[in-house]
Amino acid sequence: MCKQGWLRTERTVFEKSRQGRRSYSMPILDVPQVDPEDLIPPNLLRQKPADLPELSEPEIVRHFVTLSVTNHHVDRDFYPLGSCTMKYNPKICEFVASFAGFADIHPLLPEELVQGALKLMYELGQSLCEITGMDDCTLSPAAGAHGEFTGMLMIRAYHEAKGRARTKVLIPDSAHGTNPASVTIAGYSSVEIPSDSSGRIDVERLKAYLDEDVAALMVTNPNTLGLFETHIAEIADLVHRVGGLVYMDGANMNALLGISRPGDFGVDLAHLNLHKTFGTPHGGGGPGAGPLVVKKDLSPYLPIPVIVRDGEKYRFDDDRPQSIGRVHGFYGNFLVMVKAYCYILMAGARGLQSMAENAIINANYLLAKLRDYFEVPFDGFCKHEFVLSGRDKAAKGVRTLDVAKRLMDYGFHPPTIYFPLIVEEALMIEPTESETLETLNRFVDAMISISQEIESDPERLKTAPHSTPVGRVDEGLAARRLDVSE
User: How would DSSP label each residue in 254-310?
Assistant: First the structure.
């Protein structure tokens, strides 16, 4: 008998035995049988039914299809955001991540019931170590900046274990914008290191900052100008001589895959952006993943839990007395890891190298096509991205913002603008490895056409975009009077 006022939900279970097949009903859940209105305070109850429109299925389908066409996204057309790596994301990775064995597991399930997930995470970590030339890994950080902060905490723990009271972290002026914030939040002082005339770290000026107060150098390589730090091994050696560590922001790792490994040129720890380099969609605040790979001297300080392998089984290891502790409520953004694992397995070592090679070829192709139409502040062979300057255009009354808005009329998402800060009127362009020659040529044609319009019809740029659902807005006013009601 069920308790009064309760509803017992049952399911039919079939059992095979020597006596044949029999069935019986098995209770699986007791649900309280109450009026929903008794659970909601009277002042929160509607006094009359909601005035909702009645829509047919075709109307609803057309509404969402219209939204998908109206919005710009990487499945619609080119998305050349420099430093953000908005490339094609294989749909098979999304499909695999939707498997019930991945999507429906709970983070508090016993380890013996999630051996497949633990194996996937362990092998992903091993792959990332091999790709980067490092020794150990944590998958816990939920994004790139979270990986940076985790790395800074590990650097602090490393120095404290050696009895050192280091106070500052050196950061090149060409680094990613989150680097100084991560350093400051971790309790260090951020010291900016200037670039030389080539757009790389000025080694001679760096030497003046190196002393026993330096906890680390935090370098983005390739940097935000799309340039590889050609003296990185020498720089790492200089930092190590004063007892500092070298942290690499690995957000631009898609330019190095299979070509160069951070661990081989002196980096002690680095984060990777699975949601950039390894084919996971990102943007709009997430989801992301920023695993941290480290050399063995830093392994004791990895956040818990660390995934380890015992024979043929996998488990979480929390017994790490020197660990910085937990940096995530659970074990990181698991489904992002599934997609990255799938991406790496599909590509293989040679495929990953081809991605880096194609990213470099695409970027240099665009640079070669556009250098006669836009100023190139740091010219030369680039990696996966490059930076143009609209400084000469601004002298004619047309700003980089106007160029970006006009690109939208040609069907392209604008590139990153006004970053890096060391380039005036910056246009930061990253074609990624997944764009075709036809797409790149369409983009080149659009940029050349815009360059010509600056000379013949500058007002057309100043009032752009003209073909989008929303035209030019007062961005200053919009920032001050934010309205997200619709």
Answer: GGTTTT--GGGGT-SEEEE-HHHHT-----TT------EEE-GGGGGGPPSPEEEEE
Going by C-alpha positions, the residue among 280, 286, 268, 276 that lies closest to residue 252 is 276
According to CATH, what is the number of the domain 354-476? Answer: 3.90.1150.10
For residues 374 and 462, give the distance between their C-alpha atoms in angstroms, rounded to a whole number: 18
CB contact at 8 A, 144 and 134: no
Higher pLDDT residue, 379 or 12? 379
d(CA 269, CA 273): 14
- Token look-up 């040129």 returns 265
CB 290 within 8 A of CB 143: yes
Residue 18 in tokens: 């020597």
User: Pairing relation of β-strands 168-172 and 189-193?
Assistant: parallel
Residues with Cβ within 8 Å of 97's Cβ and at least 6 positions away in sequence, in order, are 103, 335, 338, 339, 342
Question: Is residue 29 helix, strand or coil?
Answer: strand
So where are the chain's domains? 7-38, 92-347, 354-476
Residue pLDDT, tens place only, 323-361? 999 999 888 999 999 999 999 999 999 999 999 999 999
* C-alpha to C-alpha distance for 363 and 227, rounded to whole angstroms: 11
Q: 325 Cβ partners below 8 Å, 6+ apart? A: 303, 304
Q: What's the pTM? A: 0.86
Overall fold of domain 92-347? Aspartate Aminotransferase; domain 2 (3.40.640)
- List b or e across 74-86, with b for residues whose CB sees 16 or more CB atoms inside 10 angstroms: beeebbbbbbbbb
Beta bridge partners of 317: 306
What is the DSSP secondary-structure string of 58-125?
A: HHHHHHHHHHHHHS--TTTS---BTTT------HHHHHHHTSHHHHT--TTS-GGG-HHHHHHHHHHH
User: Tell me: the pLDDT tens digits for 398-447?
Assistant: 999 999 999 999 999 999 999 999 999 999 999 999 999 999 999 999 99
DSSP for 355-412, please give it.
HHHHHHHHHHHHHHHHTTTSB-SS-S--SS-EEEE-HHHHTTT--HHHHHHHHHHTT-
Q: Convert the pLDDT of each residue in 4-16 to its tens digit.
A: 344 444 444 444 4
